[in-house]
Amino acid sequence: MSAAPTVLGVLGGMGPLATADFMRKLVESTPATKDQDHMPVFVHSVPQIPDRSESFLAGSDAPWPFLLAGLRILESAGAGAIAIPCNTAHLWHSRLAAATQLEVLHIGRASAEAVTAHPEALRRVGLMATSATIQGRIYHDALHAAGVDVVVPCARDQHERVSAGIAAVKAGDLARAAAMLDRAASQLVDDGAQGIILGCTELPLVLSDHPSGVPLFDTTHLLVKACIAWWHKATAARRRNETISS
Amino acid sequence: MSAAPTVLGVLGGMGPLATADFMRKLVESTPATKDQDHMPVFVHSVPQIPDRSESFLAGSDAPWPFLLAGLRILESAGAGAIAIPCNTAHLWHSRLAAATQLEVLHIGRASAEAVTAHPEALRRVGLMATSATIQGRIYHDALHAAGVDVVVPCARDQHERVSAGIAAVKAGDLARAAAMLDRAASQLVDDGAQGIILGCTELPLVLSDHPSGVPLFDTTHLLVKACIAWWHKATAARRRNETISS
Q1: What backbone torsions phi and psi does residue A54 show, to the nearest 5 degrees?
Q2: CA B172, B176, B182, B187 torsion: positive or negative?
Q3: Among the four residues A160, B3, B54, B216, which has the most C-beta atoms within 10 Å?
């Protein structure tokens, strides 16, 4: 048995279907001709963590001990970096990053980079996300710094279509979720959005395109791309070290 | 933060797409209205383990140290039982079960039970699986004991359609895999199979039904059902204990 491989740690379960979607996209996005070409991952998918958006909006830190416990389990298992397929959980990203020696990838930064690098030079993008992700400015600051305006749903649309749509995905009612979320996306396009960030990992489960043709940014997939880039870098560095020490 | 929940340990990565499929089916099969209703899982998906079928057929025990290392990580992470979404890996099931205090669920037993309990009282079923699963009799003994005949592909079909189809799934070429595997299934039906066991977790990724209308047994889904039954039992036992001790 050779040395243990470089393993990605996934702090997941937020929600669990989004974590399964992340894993599928990770496999599908990795160039491979056989099992052994794929990225090794440990996944901590423990959905009993309190709702991140509700907690943040209520000024509660309730998710933190659950996040930290998950991080510690992934560290003990031997993870080499951490990915969190949940946008809202990134409100605790800096504290997680400060609590570990491991690199904690950032879904918002990876996605904001994809928006600013888009060939259509988007100047105004819509953001569909939990209310906490919007209020916590996970996307706003990076996009404003790059000169991109962010348009969000009005309060009523946010409540009745986006938040309700995300809850419907979590309840397994994907068809109802798709209808609500599609209407919210249309309103953002009417409000001038030239692209839409699916800034909650439940959203790509039901939205893959929009009749208007504006690009949708699948943040699950953009996190997957960041993970693959990390893995290639970590694997190459490890090979160099092995060559030097052998 | 309440006590840690009862967590399922998944010894996966064999292959990684089958593990992602298992996770999605686990979520979809769990009655839930919110994230917190879902089963907590810790997944060890490390595809660098040597090919189980090739090793078994060559008389090699090469996968064993990888399986044991994965089991130990799942134990350390706090798993309460182990599920392995790979039929061929069950050739090492009894050794894994002997190496741990945890219950190790058995995909073959769960699936053979579903076959014998089928309302059509099937007397003859086809088995699509790796050559090692067939030679290692993961399904034969339980089904024969229940009076069910097992029909397997001829050597040429096994090689050119089933093994090649499984390899195509692992290489991400799902369309080509589906065509090969569908032909192998048709031959089994021509040979008198009244139902077909998809006895490799790569198969349900590309086969969900068959034009003949014979029932297909998705062993990934049948393992999921066994996991949910375990979880309900373990959670109920835990609640009883908490009531007694409080």
Answers
A1: -60, -45
A2: negative
A3: B216
- pLDDT at B5 exceeding the cut of 80: no
ipTM: 0.94
Q: Give the pLDDT confidence of A16-35 residue by residue, as tens digits.
A: 999 999 999 999 999 999 99
- Tell which residue, B194, B90, B110, has the closest CA to residue B148: B194
One-letter amino acid identity for B157? D
- Closest C-alpha to A128, from A161, A171, A156: A161
Mutate to test the interface with A, among B38, B173, B174, B227 (most CBs of A within 10 A): B38
Restricting to B residues 149-188, those with a Cβ less than 8 Å away from any Cβ of A are 167, 170-172
How many Å separate Cα B42 from the centre of its chain?
Answer: 17
| Strand B196-198 versus strand A103-104 pairing type | unpaired
Check CB contact under 8 Å for B42 and A44.
yes
Please give the structure tokens belonging to residue B36: 């917190």
Cα distance between residue B7 and residue B234, in whole Å:
10
Chain A residues inside the 8 Å CB shell of B47: 35-38, 40
Asked whether the beta carbons of residue A77 and residue B78 sit closer than 8 angstroms, the reply is: no
Mean pLDDT value across residues A171-185: 95
Using alpha carbons, select from A170, A24, A50 the residue that is nearest to residue B23. Answer: A24
* Contact list, B71 vs chain A (CB under 8 Å): none
Cβ–Cβ gap B35/A44 under 8 Å: no
pLDDT, one tens digit per residue, over A107-133 is: 999 999 999 999 999 999 999 999 999
**Residue at token pair 């309440």:** B2
When CB atoms are compared, the residue of A20, A40, A48 closest to B46 is A40
Pairing of strands B41-45, A41-45: antiparallel
What's the rounded Cα separation, in Å, for the pair B89 and B93?
7
CA dist A177 and A169 (Å) reads 6
Residue with tokens 């993008």: A125
Residue A15 preceded by cis peptide, ω within 30: yes
Report the alpha-carbon angle A199-A205-A211, nearest 5.
80
